[in-house]
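[Automated response] Your request has been received and processed.

Submitted sequence:
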Amino acid sequence: MRCHSTNPLNVSWLEITLQLISFQHIADQPNTQNMLSVHTPTLRKMVPFLFLPAGMGLLFEIAIAPSAAQKILALALALFCPELTRMAWVDLQNIELLTIAKTSSETVDTGSPTIAAATAQPKMTEPSAQPQQSQQLNRFRTVVVSTIALEVTGFYLTFASLPVGAVMIVLSQFWFNLLASIQLHPAKPVPIVSLGIQDRQAVLTVNAITAGLLCLWPIQSMRLGLAVALLVLTTLFLAVKYGFHRSE
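Generated structure:
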């Protein structure tokens, strides 16, 4: 990532976004497994450097925003930024682990002496199911990479317009939840679990409510209330999510 010397927050995100989107073509290549193994760790390591400048910019926006509504909206987005960073990191890490597991299991099937190394990796299911799992994994990776590109675009758009950037970020969540048909659990006996739109109704409902609130932003008299509502939604989402994980 490169920053222009005139403004430390003016990151050349467009170049990085185009590079991210280009990764989705890997899934269509014959040597998909090898390519995924090479590029996914690199992309995962890039994730914090993609989101961190945006998060810092939002903190700066909180300080300089001309109105209380804009300050609160910037705060809500700043709270959400680390969560999206973490989710992107985890999704890419899970893809990486399952790609390694699949490659290892196929190596064992062909009689290679690397059985000990393979058994240390998460297990894929029966060989007959592996082609379908490969397609699911490749498609999920495409969805994850394109979602990251949309999220990064949205966060850097907030430097020009907070509500426009916020809308892009919400659209990225719609994009992911509508297209991601699986969930990855590398440490579990069944590492790839189907998770369709029906299973994501609660999250999609929250996305729809958030989008609806942002659509009302042009109404000047409602902005402060809308910003407070968005901050409350973000805080509740994070509290419920991490409170639930802690209870497990």
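Summary generated for your ticket: The chain has a mean pLDDT of 80. The chain has eight helices and two strands.
If you did not submit this request, please reply to this message.
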